[in-house]
Every structure is written in structure tokens, then in C-alpha cells.
Inverse folding.
């Protein structure tokens, strides 16, 4: 049951669904819930306040994550400002945020704490756990690499279609290169080419493979080819046996079979074809399949002879189309398996691989620990746009949050979306996945309530009223019973849309009145819209068209206030041409074309080829003759005749080549564009702006690619490969040529989530493309996707297409703030091509609503005006437009303002920077190279290990380890330190060591399984080693440790090395009189990452892991040797910085914190030295800086 949402009382420690209709403030609601969690405010609170790293928010695009993070930042800053003001004057009237005002009673008693939490959130908002679904999966797989068993070293590729194509080519070769000529002919008929096959099935290669609705007569592709050959042979036998008798029988009963005598010619053509020596068996089957159902499906007057029935039964059992679908299914299934195997065995991963990998990990029986860790890290999760989820994504979140232990109150899970706006089926999103979670929640009570947002803050009251009435006109407007249309209320809005002093209607309808025989042409409608917009903008320039309200400043209507919604690029091209003719600038915001397929790309290639080979006459002529250089045929002829000019051109090309080789391709191209006056030459073309943007974009891409190419020739070869346009990378998309004060043209899909004052829908009443899909898909009663191999349920597939068309219409109608401008014909016949009965396949979604949900109406003609009046009442105005309308001449752009750059008058602190211990250590290394060994860098920051065995005398190996399998025999180097560090980071200290984890460790260290027992012994010793005061690591629970604590230590004052050395000399026992710290003065922050912070016995301990090789005997890891290593590598400077950072953090988190009482000390664990259990503390360096030292440093660096 749907319940109106109260954002203040929503229970947060449970699982919720929130359905937010368009314009009802979905993002605003999410931000309010986020702040409730931060402050632990409102009714039905979460048990504990959460910080920004514990609240997981998942959206589906990077843009959405950026927008949501910014909205949270802005509202958090607003609440902080209001609460700080309220703390001072206690005046509630100054709190203009209604939600904050409602929450004030819950936080007033702890107002300082609330302010502190908001301040912390503002400062660290960039660390908020706001991810795309792919970003979330990537983080989990890397953070819990050992728990997931997948490792953590993989390379994420945004798009890798070429890799998938290569896997497809290999499968094609494996399956078809060795088959017979007859079977190759079948393959050509069924699959055509490997590229065609890949293109047809590309969207099926990710996500879940659809189920099939029948049992296959063969189980693999090879068996399918054999099966097809057998069927062809049977058909040929039947054909040869019965063809003559069939013809005689047909001629005898020809008139009785069908009254439409003209159709009998098709049989004659069929007989001619099958008797033809050139006809193939496949062609004969196809002809028979099309004709027999027409003549023999239902015939009560003539009894079909046995041979005809046998022939018919055979064709019913064997359909060429069915066979093609079955083969495609088997091929796709095997190709998917090949792709998954490839991805699992290679480090390169695509975004969708991350989802599949995490889904598979969570399905394992051993995944309960990983699930618990994720729930512990993210006690609350909020999933945005959940109507666009798919089965894989649902499986991930269900496993983590919905299938966990019942009656658990320590987690919350809220999904928010709108099923009426589920429009991304082509991308793999599946509205039935969303509906299935609603079903399962109702059955298993995993989700207590479904809440709805019911107030629209976007559109005017009249527009909302009309859209409500329109959708309520049909009993089941969205075709699916589970998607209910709930009318929304209008928020208070004072502004309106005025033209000539009159408030405009919510709908402006442009109706064509041409003779219906001309049809509804898109070109005529586009011209009508361009004329209407030209007139509107002209009136606005005169000051008579504006947005505003009584007593408010009028806002003139400009081009940027107008959006035109289209279905695709074809519709965009038509409307843009019409706008250009009227002098109206526009931009297509949904451009998905590849810049390498543009005309500019081909021209730029010719220019680069000429620069690289200036003595190749053909290359030079091709360059100067292209659009970029722009010489005419006559100018080229004159150039060729003038040796001086030709030589000068070659000289210039040689100069550009020299610049290319010395400075790079980008500087060379910029110089060429300027010297040859390319922008000036391009101004003569209408497309100059688009061309120039592409040119600059390509220049940048070439500069980036130059870093991966060996030389200029290699770069040109790379460029030539890109011209095919196969790369689908986002960075290769065409860029917008302009964005300011132009009419926005955007697809309905991309307009979702956006709003515009005026929205134009010129083609919404044109039937959607009825291009027949190659294969049929539908969802069964269990909401599982079915591949309809036998085309048994075409009406279900069609119904799902219509349902999505309706959802697209809903999105289109709900983008406008003031007015919808819609193009309509005079009658339905104008768009339905004079069908005497409306064809349900040709009805648009808007037609369906206007007809009240009827799909077939026995009328020849109905006026749109009649239906619109019934649906929209008095909320529309109709304007008739004829094809011959001519409104004014093209608009003249207003004179551009003279612009000047803003002047900067502030001071830039040049010493302010972000530095780290590694950077400081490197500077000390440069000063004291002989004192600081190059072979003892701290791998924690720089991942550099000691690797100089010759300087260390040998020692006897440890007897408890097999020979050559001691910790001293482990490999050395940067990679080893990183792997050991990550292993310890993921290790649960109190749990027994797992063989699987050690096997993965061996894999990443490049060790064989002989190392399993030594490694098990070593890490057991590390965990059991007694540490002074703290005890051993094996007693540290997960709740008492903080791994990888990243910090930014603010240096409030300019770093003063003299005072710093003076403090160290006075309070630091390891201060080196001979080598004081010498670093130039800096100001800013020091960043770092503490390996581990442990809480034991009421104290906090700072732990840093070191895998440095100090020698191959335990004696090299005694406390005195470690102190020397600490001092020589200035690790003492590191732990002082880390200690101060931890001190400040604890002081901020706990008002009762005292350094003397609660700071336990610092451990540097030299792992190779912790090889045996002993009480001598080998491998362990422990210290605790004095309170005086920490406080002096705190004062020196200020806060």
C-alpha cells in the first residue's frame, strides 16, 4: 500500500521504497534524509548518528553523483549557517528551511554536537560514499580483495568493444573455419558475418541472459548445423515427392481455397521458383512458410489431402526463422561464456564486469563475512533511480541488505525512483526488475512500506492539472497493472508565462490543416515550430513575452528557455534545419557521434599526412584541396603552375613537420591553424562552428595519443585506424559547439531529470519507429525476461514496447515548467495513413490516452480538437498552421557585448601546498645522501623496499622454517611491500588464517605453493607477537581497529624549520645534532595514511608496517638495530607527524580525550624480523612521544 512520505518521520532503520513522480523533489528528499542520518534527527531515527563515509548513496551516472554531492554540500552548508546563527540569537524565524525547522526540536538539546557534525561533513564532503553502481562495485572488490578472492590489481577500461569483437572473431573461427561448404552456406544465411552477428546481439553480452520458452532440439552450434541439414533434406524429399501432385490438386481446388484470386499468383510464383534450377532450398522454405498459412490454415470447404497435411506439419515444426533464433541464442550463450572467461583471466575489466564479479562473489556460500563487512562499513544505503536497475544490480543489493538476518535494526536500505520514468530498456534497465522487488517485498515483508512524493514543485498548477486529467482518462495508462498513476498536487507558484499581457495556456497546440493525402510530414511540422518560436522570440525582444508575476521583475524569454524534445538524431536534424532557416541558434545535447567519423577528422588526417610527407605531391594536393585548407580547383591549378608558390608551400609544411617533431602535434596544429588562417577560411561555411570544434577536439586527442606512440608515423597510423569509428570511448563523442542562449534540442531519454520553462514536442504524435526487432523478448508471470524463440507471444512483446512508449511520453510531458508546445494533425487519419479502422500498432502513446485507453475504434475520422477538449478542458490553445505559412525573415541576433577578462586582485600564497612525509624524506635524502640509505625508503608512502643484499653480512637461517623459505628469503622490491601491506589491511586478526587467502598472496608475490606453510607460520607469529602494553594483534577485534586512516594535517602557520629543530633538540630523544631538518619554508597541509590505529584497554596505538630487509638473520631486527634504522631513515619524523595527526583527530572526536591517558604509543613493525614467537621484541620498535613534544608541535603548526 502506498503511503504519502513524511520525510521527518520516515523510519530509517528499515527497508523502504520511495516512489517520486516527476518534479516532486526526489533529490531534495534524498538530501534531507542524508542530513537526518548525519544528525540522528527526526522520528524513527537510525540507532546511531552516521558520518559521511557510512552513508552509501548509489546513482547510475557520474553526472548524477556530482550533482548529488554538490546538493548535499550546499544544503549542509546552509543548515550549518542557520544553526550557528540560531545558536547565537535563538530566533527560529531566521530558519527558512522547513525541514530543518521541523527537526530543530530533535537536535536543540545537543546543538553544539549537531553543528560539529555538519562542520565535519562540510569539510570532508569529498570523502562521502556517493558512487555510481560501477564505482561502488569497484571499491568493494578492491577494498575487500582477499575476502572476495578476486585480487585487487585490475585495470578498469571504460569501453573495450574491440576486445569483445576479437573474442567474437576467435569464436567464429573456432566454430566455422573447418565446416563443410554446405554448412558454411547455412552460416551465411543465419549469421551473415561475424560483425553483423556481434552488432545484432551486442546488448545481450552483458547482464543476465534471457531464458527461453521452449526446449531446443539441439544443444550446440555444430549440432544445429547438422539438424538444419537434415531438415533441408527432408523438405527436399517432400518437395520432390509431392510437388507434381500438389500442383494438380491446387489447380483443381484453386477457386475454393481463397476468394482473393489475385493471391493465387503467389502460388504460381512459388512453383516457378521451386522448379527453377537457380532456387536454393532456403528460398523454397521461406516461400512455403509465407504462403501455406494463407491458404491452408483454415479451410472447412476443402479437405486437405494427406500429403499436404504432412507438408504443412513439417513446416509448422520446422521454421527457418525459429531455427535462426535458436542458433543465435546458442551462439550468444557461448560468446558470453568466452567473454567472461577472458575477463576472469585478464586484468582488464569493463564496467559491467565489476557488477557480474561482485554478484558472483556475493552468491558464494562463503560470502557471509564479506556481506557483514559491507553492512558494517555502510550501515545505511540509499539507491537512486532504482526503476532503472537490472537483475544483476538487484541481486547485489538484495544479497547485502534484503536477504540478511531478519529483525536486525542496525542497517537501513531505501530505494527511490519512479516506475513511470523507466525508459532505459535499450541500455539493459528493466522495469520488471523494479516490479519484482515490490512483489518480493510484499510477500516476504522485507520492505514495510512503499512511500510516495505527491507534490510537484516544477510545473504550473494548470499544467499539472491537465497532465493528471490526461493520464486518468485511461483506466490502465501505463499498460502494466503494477504501475499506478497517482495524481500529484501543485506547489504554490506565483510566476506565470505572459505574451502580450495575457497568461498563456498550459498547452499550445500547433495543428496542421493540409489535405490528409499529403500526410503528416515532419518537415512541415518542423517549419511550423520554427516559425512559432521565431514569432515568440521576436515578441520577447519587444518586451511583450516574459515570465513573471505581479510585483516581480519580468524575465524576458530567450532561446535558452526553450527545449525541443526528439526521439533521435534524425528528428533533431529536421528541426535544426528549420530553426537555422529562421535564424534561431540551437544545439543538440544528445549527440553521440564519434568525432573520428566527422568531416574534420578526414581533412585533418590529410593535413598531417602532407606535413609528414611534404614531397609526396599527391598527399599535398589532397591536403590543400580539402575543406580545412580550402583551395578551389582553380587555385590549386594556379599553385601547381607557380614553382615559387609551390616551393614556399613545401617549405611551410617542412617547418610544421619540424615543430611537430620538436614540440608535439598540438603546438604544431595550433601554429598551422593560425599561420594558414584556418578559422577565417572556415567562416564561409554554415557548418564552420561545428567543424572548428571538431578540429580542436581532434587536436587534443592526437596530443594525448602521441604519448603512447613511438613517432610521428606511428601516430598517423593510429589516427588512420580511428577513422573507422569503431572506438566507443566517451572522450571521442562530439562536443557541443555552443551552449549559451540557444534552443536546446535533446532526446526524451536524455531529458529525464531536467526541466525547462517551455518544452516543444513537434513529433510526439508521429508513430515511433516500427522497425521490426530481429528477436522477440517479453517477461513472464515471474517477471523473468524470456527470449521468444518460436514467436509464440508477439502480443506480450508488443505490449512491453507500448508500455515503454507511454513512459517516454510521461517523461516528455513532465519536463515543462509553464507550457507544452505540441504538434498535432487535424485528424487521426492524417497520421494513420487513411486506415478505416485505427490500427493499434500505429497509435501513439498520446493517442492511447486521448482515446481513454481504447486501442481499436470503429470510426473513420475524429477531430483532435474534440478529443483534446475532453482531455485538457480549457487548458489548451489551438493554432492552425498551413504549409505555406511564412513568418518574417530570419531573426537577427542582437549585437554581441564586448567582453573583457575579469581582473585578479588577490594574493596567491606560493608556499601553500599539499605535501607528505615522502616528499619531506626525499628532500632530506637530497641533503644527506650518504646518511640516508637509498635502499631503505618507506614503502608505505613510496612502495620502495630495501634491495641491496651485498651490504648485509649473512646469518644462519631460522631453524623453524624450511631452508630458503624464511621471511628473509621473500622477494624484495616495491611490489612485495604493497602486497604484504594490502594483505594485512584485509586480514581479520582474530580469525584463523585461511589457505585461500594465502594462495592469493602467493599468486601476487609470484611464489609457488611450497610457501603456504612458511607464510602461515610467519603471519601466525606476527599476530601472536606480544607488543608492549597493548598485547598481541591476534586479540584485536575488527571493531577496535581503523585501517588506512587517511589524514590531512593542517599547518596553520608557515613552517619554521629553526623552531622545529629547536623543539626536536629539546624534547625528541632521536634528534640528530649532525643532521638537523632542513626544508624550505612551506605552508598548507601534510597528507598521509596511517596503516593501522588500534584501540586496546582504553588507549589508542599507532601502527606502521615495514617490510624493509635489514639482514637475513633475526639479530638484525633487535630493538637497538631498529632504532638505528628509524633514525637513519627519519621514520621518527614520520611517526611524529602521524602522532600529531592522530592526536588532533582524537581530540576532535572525544571531548574527554587526554594525550597522557589515551594515547598509547607508536609501533613500527618490521615484519621480516617478527619471524619467531619470542619475548625479545625482535622486529618491534615501540615509542611514545612525550606530551610536551606533541603539544609544542601542535602549537608550532597551529590549528
Amino acid at each position: 500500500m502506498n503511503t504519502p512520505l513524511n520525510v521527518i518521520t520516515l523510519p530509517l532503520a528499515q527497508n523502504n521504497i520511495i516512489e517520486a513522480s516527476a518534479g516532486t523533489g526526489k533529490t531534495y528528499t534524498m538530501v534531507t534524509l542524508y542530513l537526518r542520518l548525519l544528525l540522528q534527527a527526526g522520528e524513527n531515527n537510525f540507532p546511531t548518528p552516521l558520518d559521511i563515509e557510512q552513508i552509501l548513496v548509489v546513482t547510475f551516472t557520474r553526472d548524477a553523483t556530482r550533482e548529488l554531492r554538490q546538493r548535499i554540500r550546499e544544503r549542509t552548508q546552509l543548515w550549518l549557517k542557520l544553526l550557528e546563527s540560531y545558536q547565537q540569537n535563538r530566533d527560529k524565524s531566521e530558519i527558512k528551511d522547513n525541514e530543518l525547522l521541523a527537526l530543530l526540536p530533535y537536535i536543540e538539546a545537543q546543538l553544539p554536537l549537531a553543528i560539529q557534525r555538519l562542520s565535519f561533513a562540510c569539510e570532508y564532503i569529498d570523502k562521502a560514499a556517493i558512487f555510481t553502481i560501477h564505482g561502488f562495485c569497484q571499491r568493494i572488490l578492491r577494498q575487500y580483495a582477499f575476502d572476495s578472492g578476486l585480487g585487487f590489481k585490475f585495470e578498469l577500461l571504460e569501453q573495450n568493444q574491440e576486445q569483445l569483437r576479437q573474442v567474437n572473431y576467435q569464436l567464429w573461427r573456432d566454430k566455422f573455419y573447418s565446416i563443410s561448404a554446405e554448412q558454411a552456406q547455412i552460416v551465411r544465411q543465419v549469421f551473415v558475418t561475424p560483425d553483423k552477428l556481434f552488432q545484432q546481439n551486442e546488448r545481450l553480452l552483458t547482464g543476465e541472459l534471457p531464458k527461453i520458452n521452449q526446449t531446443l532440439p539441439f544443444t550446440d552450434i555444430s549440432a544445429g548445423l547438422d539438424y538444419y541439414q537434415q531438415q533441408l533434406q527432408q523438405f527436399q524429399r517432400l518437395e520432390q515427392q509431392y510437388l507434381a501432385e500438389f500442383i494438380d490438386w491446387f489447380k483443381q481446388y484453386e477457386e475454393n481455397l481463397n476468394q482473393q484470386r489475385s493471391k493465387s499468383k503467389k502460388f504460381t510464383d512459388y512453383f516457378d521458383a521451386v522448379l527453377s534450377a537457380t532456387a536454393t532450398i532456403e528460398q523454397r522454405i521461406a516461400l512455403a512458410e509465407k504462403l501455406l498459412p494463407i491458404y491452408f490454415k483454415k479451410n472447412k470447404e476443402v479437405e486437405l489431402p494427406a500429403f499436404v497435411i504432412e507438408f504443412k506439419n513439417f513446416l509448422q515444426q520446422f521454421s527457418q526463422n525459429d531455427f535462426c533464433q535458436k542458433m543465435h541464442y546458442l551462439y550468444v550463450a557461448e560468446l558470453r561464456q568466452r567473454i567472461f572467461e577472458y575477463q576472469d583471466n585478464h586484468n582488464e575489466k569493463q564496467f559491467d564486469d565489476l557488477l557480474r564479479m561482485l554478484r558472483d562473489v556475493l552468491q558464494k556460500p562463503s560470502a557471509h563475512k564479506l556481506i557483514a563487512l559491507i553492512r558494517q562499513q555502510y550501515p545505511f544505503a540509499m539507491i537512486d533511480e532504482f526503476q532503472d536497475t537490472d537483475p544483476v544490480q538487484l541481486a547485489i543489493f538484495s544479497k547485502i541488505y534484503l536477504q540478511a538476518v531478519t529483525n536486525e535494526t542496525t542497517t537501513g536500505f531505501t530505494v527511490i525512483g519512479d516506475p513511470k520514468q523507466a525508459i532505459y530498456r535499450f541500455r539493459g534497465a528493466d522495469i520488471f526488475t523494479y516490479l519484482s522487488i515490490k512483489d518480493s517485498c510484499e510477500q516476504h515483508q522485507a520492505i514495510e512500506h512503499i512511500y510516495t512524493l505527491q507534490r510537484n514543485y516544477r510545473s504550473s498548477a494548470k499544467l499539472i492539472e491537465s497532465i493528471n486529467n490526461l493520464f486518468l482518462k485511461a483506466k490502465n495508462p501505463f499498460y502494466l497493472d503494477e504501475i499506478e498513476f497517482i495524481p500529484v498536487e501543485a506547489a504554490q507558484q506565483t510566476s506565470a508565462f505572459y505574451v502580450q499581457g495575457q497568461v498563456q495556456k498550459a498547452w499550445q497546440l500547433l495543428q496542421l490543416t493540409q489535405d490528409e493525402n499529403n500526410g503528416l510530414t515532419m518537415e512541415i511540422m518542423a517549419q511550423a515550430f520554427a516559425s512559432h518560436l521565431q514569432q515568440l522570440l521576436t515578441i520577447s525582444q519587444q518586451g511583450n513575452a516574459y515570465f513573471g508575476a505581479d510585483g516581480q521583475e519580468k524575465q524576458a524569454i530567450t532561446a535558452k528557455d526553450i527545449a525541443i524534445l526528439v526521439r533521435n538524431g534524425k528528428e533533431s536534424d529536421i528541426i535544426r534545419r528549420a530553426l537555422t532557416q529562421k535564424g534561431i541558434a540551437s544545439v543538440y545535447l544528445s549527440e553521440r557521434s564519434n568525432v573520428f567519423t566527422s568531416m574534420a577528422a578526414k581533412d585533418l588526417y590529410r593535413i598531417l599526412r602532407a606535413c609528414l610527407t611534404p614531397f609526396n605531391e599527391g598527399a599535398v594536393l589532397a591536403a590543400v584541396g580539402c575543406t580545412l585548407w580550402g583551395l578551389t580547383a582553380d587555385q590549386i591549378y594556379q599553385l601547381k603552375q607557380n614553382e615559387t608558390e609551390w616551393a614556399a608551400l613545401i617549405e611551410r609544411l617542412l617547418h610544421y613537420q619540424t615543430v611537430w617533431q620538436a614540440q608535439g602535434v598540438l603546438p604544431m596544429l595550433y601554429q598551422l591553424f593560425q599561420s594558414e588562417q584556418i578559422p577565417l577560411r572556415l567562416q564561409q561555411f554554415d557548418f564552420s562552428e561545428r567543424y572548428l570544434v571538431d578540429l580542436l577536439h581532434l587536436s587534443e586527442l592526437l596530443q594525448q595519443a602521441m604519448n603512447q606512440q613511438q613517432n610521428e608515423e606511428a601516430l598517423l597510423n593510429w589516427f588512420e585506424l580511428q577513422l573507422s569509428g569503431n572506438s566507443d570511448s566517451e572522450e571521442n563523442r562530439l562536443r557541443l559547439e555552443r551552449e549559451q542562449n540557444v534552443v536546446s534540442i535533446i532526446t526524451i531519454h536524455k531529458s529525464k531529470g531536467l526541466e525547462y520553462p517551455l518544452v516543444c514536442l513537434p513529433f510526439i504524435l508521429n508513430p515511433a519507429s516500427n522497425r521490426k526487432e530481429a528477436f522477440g523478448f517479453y517477461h513472464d508471470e515471474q517477471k523473468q525476461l524470456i527470449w521468444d524463440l518460436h514467436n509464440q507471444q508477439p502480443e506480450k512483446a508488443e505490449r512491453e514496447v507500448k508500455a515503454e512508449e507511454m513512459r517516454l511520453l510521461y517523461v516528455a510531458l513532465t519536463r515543462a515548467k509553464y507550457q507544452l508546445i505540441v504538434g498535432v494533425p487535424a485528424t487521426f487519419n492524417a497520421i494513420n495513413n487513411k486506415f478505416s479502422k485505427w490500427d493499434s500498432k500505429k497509435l501513439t502513446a498520446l493517442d492511447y490516452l486521448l482515446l481513454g485507453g481504447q486501442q481499436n475504434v470503429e470510426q473513420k475520422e475524429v477531430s483532435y480538437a474534440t478529443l483534446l477538449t475532453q482531455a485538457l478542458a480549457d487548458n489548451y490553445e489551438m493554432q492552425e498552421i498551413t504549409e505555406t505559412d511564412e513568418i518574417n525573415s530570419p531573426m537577427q541576433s542582437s549585437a554581441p557585448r564586448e567582453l573583457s577578462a575579469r581582473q585578479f586582485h588577490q594574493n596567491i600564497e606560493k608556499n601553500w601546498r599539499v605535501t607528505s612525509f615522502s616528499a619531506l624524506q626525499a628532500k632530506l635524502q637530497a641533503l644527506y645522501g650518504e646518511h640516508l640509505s637509498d635502499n631503505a625508503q618507506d614503502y608505505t608512502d613510496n612502495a620502495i623496499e630495501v634491495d641491496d643484499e651485498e651490504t648485509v653480512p649473512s646469518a644462519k637461517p631460522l631453524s623453524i622454517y624450511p631452508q630458503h623459505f624464511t621471511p628473509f628469503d621473500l622477494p624484495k622490491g616495491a611490489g612485495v611491500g604493497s602486497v604484504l601491506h594490502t594483505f594485512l589491511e584485509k586480514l581479520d586478526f582474530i580469525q584463523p588464517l585461511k589457505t585461500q587467502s594465502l594462495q592469493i598472496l602467493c599468486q601476487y608475490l609470484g611464489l609457488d605453493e611450497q610457501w603456504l606453510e612458511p607464510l602461515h607460520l610467519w603471519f601466525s607469529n606476527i599476530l601472536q607477537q606480544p607488543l608492549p602494553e597493548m598485547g598481541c594483534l591476534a586479540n584485536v577485534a575488527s571493531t577496535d581497529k581503523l585501517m588506512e586512516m587517511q589524514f590531512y594535517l593542517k599547518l596553520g602557520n608557515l613552517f619554521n624549520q629553526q623552531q622545529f629543530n629547536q623543539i626536536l633538540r629539546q624534547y625528541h630523544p632521536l634528534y640528530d645534532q649532525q643532521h638537523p631538518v632542513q626544508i624550505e619554508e612551506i605552508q598548507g597541509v601534510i597528507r598521509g595514511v596511517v596503516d593501522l590505529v588500534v584501540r586496546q584497554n582504553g588507549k589508542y596505538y599507532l601502527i606502521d608496517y615495514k617490510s624493509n630487509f635489514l639482514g637475513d638473520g633475526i639479530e638484525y631486527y633487535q630493538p637497538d638495530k631498529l632504532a638505528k634504522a628509524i633514525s637513519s631513515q627519519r621514520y621518527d619524523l614520520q611517526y611524529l607527524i602521524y602522532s600529531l595527526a592522530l592526536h588532533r583527530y582524537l581530540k576532535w572526536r572525544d571531548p574527554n580525550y587526554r594525550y597522557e591517558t589515551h594515547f598509547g604509543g607508536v609501533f613500527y613493525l618490521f615484519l621480516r624480523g617478527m619471524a619467531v614467537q619470542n619475548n625479545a621484541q625482535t622486529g618491534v620498535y615501540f615509542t611514545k612521544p612525550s606530551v610536551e613534544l606533541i603539544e609544542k608541535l601542535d602549537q608550532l603548526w597551529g590549528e
